[in-house]
Each structure stands twice: as structure tokens, then as C-alpha cells.
Amino acid sequence: MTYAVLFLGFLVAQRLGELVIAQRNTRRLLARGASEYGADHYPVMVTLHASWLAVLVVFGWNAEVHLGWLAVFGILQLGRVWVLATLGERWTTRIIVIDEPLVMRGPFRFIRHPNYATVAAEIAVAPLVLGLTWVAVLYTLLNAAMLYKRISVEQAALSQTADARNPATA
Residue 95 forms beta bridges with which residues? Predict the structure, then answer.
């Protein structure tokens, strides 16, 4: 088994595991009265991420692993774990808003959307681990378009919730 196959196996297992966690957290949040926003673009986002993984597997399964980029990817995993640990049961792949104060600790002290920043970096760096520069460029651009839509929907949803909690802003 090559190092590329091990790397790709890690990526696929990680993403599948996160989908299980996200579904569990989504069910729990909705049961507590949370609301989902942006469900219309969610299938597009899933397709984007699934196709990214598929392209990596098809074109990278026998590639040479570039250790420098692998180290950068490893550092990004620390950021990913930090975000997930900070959000806990509030982390999900969907835009789920609950009438509770926003999380403002951990990486959220430094950046407004640390999960999106980490994922955007991973979408660029993982292909570079396998020497697939064209995949890094293509999917970074596609992801940027998706994030533009997603962040605007999320900000609008959070704004509505904040306005509902604070009559002075309505």
C-alpha cells in the first residue's frame, strides 16, 4: 500500500466520520428548537466536497506524497480538531441556528469562520500533498464560490436570530 493510498484513506474516513457526527449533532440541535437555513445549497456543497474527494482518489491514488505539504496538512488537522472541540455538539455541516449565544472562545476569538478557513485551506493543501496543483486551483475556486453563498446565508440567519433576541435592533 502506498503512502498516497493511506493519505486518501485517512481523508475519506475522516469526512465520513464527520458526516456521522454532523448528522447526530443536527438531530440534537433541531430537537432543542434550532432552525436550519440554506438547505437549498447544501446538496451542492456535498456534491462539491464529494467530487473533490473522488478526483483526489482517481488522480492521486498512486502519486508521490510531498512531505512538506503533508506537514502543512497535519497542522491544519490541529485547527480542525480545535474548531470541532470548541463547538462540540453545536458543530454540524449544515447551517443550524439555535437561540443561544454564539461561541466566542477557542479559534472563534481570532477569526469569524475558523471552520470554513480550515476547510478552504484543506481543499487547497490536500491536492498539493499529492502533487495535484490543478485540483487545488480548481476546487479552491469552486469552494470560494460556495463559501460566498454559504457565509452570506449564515450571516443573514444569525442576524435574524440576534434581531429576534434584541428588540432594540429590530
Answer: 37
Which residue is listed with cell 496538512? Answer: 73
Q: Residue 36 belongs to what H/E stretch?
A: strand 35-37
Q: How far apart are CA 159 and CA 157, in angstroms?
A: 5
Half-sphere exposure of 54 (CA within 13 A, CB side): 6
**Which residue's entry shows cell 474527494?**
53
> What φ, ψ does residue 40 adopt, rounded to 5°?
-65, -30
Helix H or strand E segment including 95: strand 95-97
Spatial separation of the C-alpha atoms in residues 162 and 154, rounded to whole Å: 12
Measured between alpha carbons, how far is residue 91 from residues 18, 63, 128 in Å? Answer: 10, 33, 27
The answer to whether residue 169 scores a pLDDT higher than 90 is no
pTM given for the model: 0.89
Whether pLDDT at 162 is above 60? no
Identify the H or E element spanning 69: helix 67-87
For residue 135, which of 65, 67, 53 has the smallest C-alpha distance? 53
